[in-house]
Design brief:
The protein has 455 residues and is mainly alpha-helical. Helices cover 84% and strands 0% of the residues.
């Protein structure tokens, strides 16, 4: 097997060729939530609030297993960079095996704990039933969602990013059709209301998972999984958890912070909850370019470290950071100007929700470039196998800065709910400074070189 093409040539070309399809796939995946919000907005603010409460908890449960797929990306990228196809296939098979059983466990947890979790985040009685039903149905889709995550992560590890994007495009178009069908009903199909959005999403997730696993099984796209390699390999599983658990904890801590923030938001009523839900979804759409570059950076850094090209890996981090900062700052300025019409698009006619949601976006928008820098540098640390650095920086930004600032400003000052919005740019600034300082210290390079000498 020849060494990867991503370990030589122009870095910008490699970065863009990987990042753009990843960004497009992430944008399309985010469309699931945006499509849900759009159609549910036609049922009213309470329907949007019900899903807004469910989403952070869903993401929390998902992230406990989703971080492990990053370990698959890093391990496969290292083997791809080193030119070892046998190790690529074995690692892929092991990743599918471990994540499959993890997803079954998390699906059961999510389903049976739906009601207590919704009460925990403070769901009002008027939206409790819808929140619980949406959560239960969505939990059943964890297995399918995780299997597609595995497929995506493994393909990214070897630099094959176009195929996952095409599959996501197909399923988003399908979801666009199924959402209104199951929410409002048509012919023999009854109107499921809020639950209909979850049914539509699970159906499309199942399709994408089946396609992804079939492609891995056929082995014609750079990776071939095999039954004989699907067994408990404790040394390999330990390595996967060593790499993946910090990423899982990072994502779950981010989800938990969103959840705790929702608990803070609920004290201001359903109108502010709906505004927070809309603002959060706009934010999730905006940061996907940063996440795309972070994922592309992880794959490129992982492959170049596998090929023992440490200096090239650092150049990748430098370039990715600049692109993320200037690109997302520009997007932030555009969204600042379009805040009101964007919010009104989701909940037409509700002036208070539009006002609160638009203010949330305007306060956050100028800090999007800083958020991009942090995400990309986390991608460098992850690609180098130093996933603990990403975890510590994220926990610091979210738990030491964002939530305490949000609590103090909203509860102890005249800003009230506006104080929650201000916590976002403040935490983005501090986290970006910490990540950049740590990156320039270069410990991640020293650790990588040391580990290679030990190997």
């Amino acid at each position: 097997m020849k060494p990867s093409k991503y370990t030589e040539g122009k870095i910008l070309n490699s970065l863009i060729s990987l990042a753009i399809p990843i960004i497009m796939a992430n944008v399309l995946q985010t469309m699931y939530q945006l499509i849900d919000t759009f159609w549910l907005g036609r049922l009213g603010a309470e329907a949007v609030a019900a899903v807004s409460l469910s989403f952070p908890i869903l993401f929390l449960v998902l992230s406990l297993g989703a971080g492990l797929t990053l370990a698959g990306t890093v391990i496969v990228a290292n083997h791809k960079g080193a030119g070892d196809q046998g190790a690529v296939n074995y690692s892929a098979s092991q990743t599918v095996f471990v994540i499959f059983f993890t997803s079954i466990f998390l699906a059961m947890v999510g389903y049976f704990l739906a009601a207590p979790l919704m009460r925990l985040v403070g769901a009002e009685q008027s939206i409790l039933e819808d929140s619980v039903e949406y959560f239960k149905i969505s939990s059943l889709g964890f297995i399918f969602l995780f299997m597609f995550f595995v497929f995506q992560s493994l393909m990214r590890g070897i630099g094959n990013v176009m195929l996952p994007m095409y599959i996501v495009l197909l399923t988003v178009f399908l979801n666009l059709i199924l959402d209104p069908l199951f929410i409002f009903g048509w012919g023999p199909i009854p109107a499921y209301g809020v639950s209909g959005a979850a049914v539509a999403s699970v159906a499309t997730q199942a399709l994408s998972a089946l396609i992804g696993i079939w492609i891995l099984w056929k082995g014609k796209r750079g990776i071939k999984i095999n039954f004989k390699d699907m067994h408990f390999d404790w040394s390999w599983t330990k390595r996967m958890f060593t790499l993946g658990l910090p990423s899982s904890l990072e994502q779950s801590s981010r989800s938990a912070a969103m959840t705790v923030m929702v608990m803070l938001v609920t004290s201001f009523g359903s109108s502010v909850v709906a505004a927070y839900g809309i603002g959060s979804r706009i934010l999730s759409l905006v940061i996907v370019p940063a996440l795309g570059f972070a994922m592309a950076t992880t794959s490129l850094v992982g492959q170049n470290i596998g090929a023992n090209k440490i200096k090239r890996a650092e150049k990748i981090g430098d370039l990715s950071s600049k692109i993320a900062f200037f690109g997302l700052t520009g997007i932030g300025l555009i969204l600042y100007l379009l805040a009101e019409p964007l919010t009104a698009f989701f909940v037409p006619g509700d002036e208070q929700v539009i006002k609160d949601g638009a203010l949330f976006i305007k306060i956050m928008a100028p800090s999007f470039g800083l958020l991009g820098v942090q995400q990309v540098l986390n991608g460098v640390f992850n690609g180098a196998g130093f996933t603990k650095a990403s975890l510590l920086i994220s926990v610091f930004g979210l738990w030491v800065i964002r939530f305490p600032v949000a609590f103090v400003l909203s509860e102890k000052t005249a800003l009230a709910s506006d104080g929650i919005w201000w916590a976002f740019p403040i935490s983005n600034l501090v986290a970006a400074i910490v990540a950049f300082t740590y990156y320039k210290m270069g410990y991640w390079k020293v650790r990588t070189i040391k580990n290679r000498h030990q190997d």
